[in-house]
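BUG: 3D viewer hangs when loading the predicted structure for this chain

Environment: internal workstation, default settings.
Expected: structure renders.
Actual: progress bar stalls at 90%.

Input used:
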Amino acid sequence: VRLKKDHSQFENWISKSATKGDLPAQIAYAEYLLEKRETDQAQQKAMVQKMVQLFAQAAQDGFAPAQFSLAQCWLQGVGVEQNQEEALKWLDLAAQQGHIEAIFTLALNLPPEHPQHLPLLQLAAQAGHSKAMLCVGMYLQRHDRASEALQWFEKAQASQDPRADYLLAISYRDGLGVEVDAKQAVALFKAASEQGDADAHFALYEAY
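Structure tokens produced before the viewer hung:
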């Protein structure tokens, strides 16, 4: 049976499912409200409050994606007052369940000197999170472990992260963990530039 798109029917059924405690439905309904609030200014405040309530219900039931979304609300002050301590609590709970984005975000919100900062970044990187790979690389580079950093930049490049080309170019230009190779640096700067990296644009200007 082919059904016509009907947002009112969708909202009717998803809200009923969410009200009965279906965790994926609660997340789907909250995300729907998040999108809808941008177009429905009159009911924006009520929709945001309902969205946070849905995230909170699913988060308290132990649903990791909801815990991560609720943490984002606390971090950004969406529907609640900004509270990093509360956000870190929910990020930690989601991270304990292996939620990769929560692990990465938790690491970013810890100071670099925190004993869990690098281990969390490495955990996310090992799980395939390309931004975490870059962060691990930059951390290692700052701590005089440039050859190890280079390996992470190469892994991020293999994951198609455009920023990896720029960081690899810097490594080849400045001889960080590898022999200086100006031609390779320029080639990588060009690759990053073609993907819109503003820093690569400036690096090419300097090179030429």
